[in-house]
Amino acid sequence: MSQAKRLLIVSNRLPYQLSEEDDEFKLTMSSGGLVSALKSYMENSSADFSDMHWYGNADFSEKEWAKASEQLAEKTDAIKPVFIPKNLKEKHYSGFSNSTLWPHFHYFPTFTKYDQSDYKAYYKVNEMFAKKIIENYQKDDVIWVHDYQLLLLPEMLRRKLPDATIGFFLHIPFPSFEIFRMLPREWRENILRGMLGSDLVGFHTNDYVLHFQKSVRMLLGYESKRRLIQTENRAIRSDLFPISIDYHLFNKSFDKPEVKKIKRQMSNLMPNMKTIFSVDRLDYTKGIGNRLRAYEHFLKENPEWHEKVTFNLVVVPSRDVIKQYGENKRKLEELVGRINGAFGKMGWQPVVYQYRSLNFDELCACYTGCDVALITPVRDGMNLVSKEFVASRKDLKGVLVLSEMAGSAAELGEAILINPTDLDELATGIKRALNMPLMMQSRHLEIMQERIRTYDVNMWAQDFMTELSNVKALQASKKIRQAGPVVKRDIKKQYDNADKRMFFLDYDGTLMPFQSQPHLAQPNERVLNMLEKLASDPKNIVTVISGRDRDTLNDWLGHLPINLVTEHGAAKKMKGEDWKLTEKVFRPEWRQEIYHQMKLNVHRCAKSFIEEKNFAVAWHYRNADKDLGFLRSRELIDSLYRVINNNMPLQVIDGNKVVEVRMTGVDKGSAAREIYDQEKGDFVLAIGDDRTDEDMFRALNEVAYTIKVGTENSEAKYNFTNISEVLPFFEDIID
Ligand code: GDG
Fold it and tell me: How far is the CA of 14 from the centre of ligand 1 (A)?
């Protein structure tokens, strides 16, 4: 990679504050997890970027920025504020982002606000981001977009910058398909398309990846194979990159004098008291209410712990203009009052509640000074607090009680994992944590620390970036070669100059479009005319090569002066000759077994059906429910592999919405090659749309123009976008 490459980070908020004192501007960078991740990544020698530019909403005005830029000159170069008018900003942020997407993606669909004007504002803001980035974009820049406030942005960028390298990372959960599909059609499709504008889409956990892939498959029809999603013209990777923290920063904080001092002050206030600690933004997803109720339940059930434990509850102000957040705060404060009122005594306050943000040292003092970290979100993309607590316990003391609904639970299995809605389990979890022997505490912490140390936030960023450049390389290697006017002209020229021309034409999906039932795809006049004209030139040898059964194709095309190859080569009729069948035998008992497996699938998958051929049996699911059909096809392939043993010369073909079992050694490749070898034309063209045509492309590639109909990756040399290009192409050649 060249040194001039720039990394453009895009997030809703810019991590910079601007202050002014006596006409002097000061720029400070905030210290969020993402900022430290990227700073550390850029400082790391393996980063290939010369500069990092940050795009985001600003807290300051355009005017202030203009003045500050004059004064601070090059310091402001890498900061790209996107200025959004206030009303739009509110509808984008408090509206669609935090009143629609946030609750919906966190499984609170009853809180989801369905407001089209909020969506429009969201769209507009994404557009404004796109415009600003496109204005400044330089070739080779790598763009990394973050989070749910900018889901539409990657596609908006892709439209204008088709070759750009774009990564997207979602910091919150991606919900299951059943939840996601509740969003209005326009929103849900645009969201998916928006995300698919990137080359790499990253999530915290494997479940989120699978949920995303399923939504893409069900709503847009794009299949995923081994994490690659294939759209009409691009392959996009979706994968998991569990975000982490700056491990050493938190681990070292244990010995920091300022942190020790605050810790001492706190324990002086509450001598001989065990402490439970939690810190979260005020958010209904964080499960603070249930946490308090469980603590209340614990105190009720365990009077021996009275006056021996305090719950240090820190709630950080957040989004308080949104209705649910304000209500949540009021309810929490009532709960705190109720618990303190019911159990508190002179000298013992069961809950010490603070509604404020802590500075870094205070935060670390709380992490390192507590006995139990109680982290109980009802849904959380990852949850960094749990990782920070673990990392900061250099003394290997303390117990983490963690909700299984936090993304981090997938990595922190040594914690006491609880279901946050189960108050009994939560209360028992608190008790177990308070009673856990030191030996066990340290054993658990050690294992978890090792994990966070080795996959820290720097690794996370590196991992994402490496994968992003891998995807680009993969796309380049698979790039489809569109047969545009120049290629078509060249083919025609070669055709005109040739003395013996050979054509290998697939039928379904190439000459005629697919129909709901195979028997409905009989050739129309235009196709018959074209074939007739093509075959009437004495220099031309035309072969229609298909997976269809002999009788159908004979009925439809048998009268033409062409070769017919059916069932992928099992039966052949050369021009003017009789049918010849393969000598291989498809034994009736094999057929019966296969038929039986397929029949079971027909019962289990409405609108699917079986097609019997002489040398093959096929199960079609083109008309079935997309997702169920696909699922059943995987199950069928699995069961077919179990019944087909080594003595049966049969192969399972995973075709285009069809699973077919046929004889081995019978394929379009061998059949086409045999015909070619007999005639050895000096112009050869093979065209087809199906996976089975890949055998033909492979077999003829060195001697033929091979054309894949459709934009999927293929062995063929060229692609036609779709079937509508096929007939005009041949008509033009014949002319
Ligand atoms: C989103 C996703 C995902 C909190 N209070 C104070 C304070 N913090 C810091 C913590 C931690 C961060 O804020 C909170 O991160 P979380 O991960 O817990 O939660 P969200 O803010 O909801 O973040 C989440 C995350 O994105 C990253 O992808 O894990 O699931 O919802 O770093 O330390 N820091 C200070 N004082 C506080 O009072 N200094």
Answer: 16
